[in-house]
Amino acid sequence: MWDCIQCWSPSRRRSLRRLVSRTSTRTVLQTPLAAVKYQDVCHFIVSDYRYLAPSSSTNSTGLVSVFRLPDDKVTGKLEVEWVRKVADDYQTDDVFQAAFLATVLFTTSSTKANKIKLSNEARDYLRKLGNTRVVFLHAPLLLPGPYLMVRNQLRDVWRLYDDTHGTCMVTLKPQATPQDSFATFQWMGSSSQFPSFAIRSRIKTTFQPVSPIAGLRIIVKDNIHLKGTRTSQGNKAFYNTYPAQEASAPCIQRLVDKGVTVAGKSKMNSFGNWEEPLEYIDFQAPWNARGDGYQSTGGSSSGSAAALAAYEFLDLAIGTDTWGSVTRPALWCGLFGLRPSFGAVPSSGIEPFCGVYDTAGLLGRDLKKCRQFAAEWLDDRVLVKEPKPFGSIVWATDFWDIVEVNQQQMARNFIRIIKDTLTIECHDVSFSKAWAQAPPAEANGLSLVSYIDEATAAQCYDALHNCQDFRTRYKEMFKHEPYISPPNQRMWDFARTITKEKRDEGFDRLSVYRKWFRETIFSAHNSNPLVVMPLESMRPRYRDEAPDFKRPPQPGVNPLGIAAVLECPVLSVPVSEIAYHSRITDQEEQLPFVVAVMSKQGKFLLQVLKHGGMPTTVQTGRSMFQKNV
């Protein structure tokens, strides 16, 4: 797993060992190296950065940087311009810091390493950065970046970040190869409250990238299988029932094969059901960095969203979405959230809630990065190819009726930007009125809500029966029933009243609705429209309050579920922020305001938002857009 010098010749190993051991620890670091040996690993701190490296001994330690020489630099002198550029590039890496330049190993695939010289200007430049030794080596397999030297071995280093917001069930060790099993990283954070993330340098993970997304760091919701780890679904009994997985879900293995780093498995509402923080029983709910820090995260991909809102060292997060489980946490945590077209992500290896609607989804802070990631991740063959540009904007009046007026105005301002940028019209459309004017024959005169309201409960039947194997296995193993949270118990009790025939009828009705919507709303003057919807009406929802609001907020096929029913992609877009007076901090804070944009094709709004001057990135921390203090 570790890059080491033991593959080199004995003479070269001895030479390098003497080189590093001659450089005192105090000289290399400019401050004493604080190192602790624990279970064959070395934990050390440099300028308040925490690192970890495996260790058989902590004697003769020193910090090292490897600079990889390109083929055109293997003869003559290395000039200061090239050395400065590499050092400057390294300084942008969050794992690297200048102390690692104490010893610099210039490596090359050429056997002429001993003929390379460093110009006096380059040597002086490195010396000003704290360098005391340089050496040129033929080491074609050694990756560039920071290392720790322990005796005769170069050890890869991982920077440790605390999971201060309690977002993950487990954090993971970096894999050496895409075929390796994942292994949990059992190292507590500096406060001993939360686990630490082990983060490898991007200098190494992006060297000779295998894809455009190589080096990106993600976390994965804990209902998605990872080879070598157990899956919890947010429930202790489920975690204890099944062994570690023998294979990763194909949708994750595809990413790993493309060079993406999986840093942890994120918390979730148990079994993917709607749970607010007080309803988390087996594991503590993650903490939302937005606002006063005591707001709901949404769910069920709660940990994935909370992590992206809190940690800059993570790029993206994978969740799953059945009925708003990606888009709703994107709302509460102030992120871009994509539920892709149904079938664009393989579902095998994902614990199902309702397979008819389940899909993996994506959360991110940078829309451009989301688009690049999706282009590598999604199966382009199943995406709708619409040759026409967006023809109109649909303002879904039935959905906006429950949203406060000031939030509607924010959304109208957002629509005006899209409208002006694309030079298209916006139409206010009531789906219930459109249904009344042109109902499908199958409705037999029933209103839209009357026809589909009870039909949406069909997914509860699937949620119950998808857990039958778990309940049976658990009872056989432990001789009693498993603990299930009250929201899930209520849903399962209700699901037991639904017959298989009633379930099938429900899904048939939803199929009728899908066909009607495509033929009615996605046609005529609304051809190829962008449907703009709310997700919820935003107001403070403190994590210490028992939920007393309606879940979901509207009957029938509501904004959280319509994309699932229509098998369309939907994107949550951060638009603005809503000021509120926090009872926690006793001062003004900001809630995210995020709208959902649905279309029948998998296009992103990146260029539209850019041309309209809208933000395409959000920050971590209390505010999406304001500089956090």
Automatic annotation (TrEMBL):
Pfam families in alphabetical order? Amidase
Q: Which residues belong to any copy of the Amidase domain?
A: 208-376
- What superkingdom heads the lineage? Eukaryota
Which Gene3D superfamilies does its entry note? Amidase signature (AS) domain
InterPro entries the UniProt entry points to: Amidase_dom, AS_sf
SUPFAM superfamilies for the chain: Amidase signature (AS) enzymes
PANTHER family documented for this protein: AMIDASE 1
Q: Per its record, how is this protein called by name? A: Amidase signature domain-containing protein
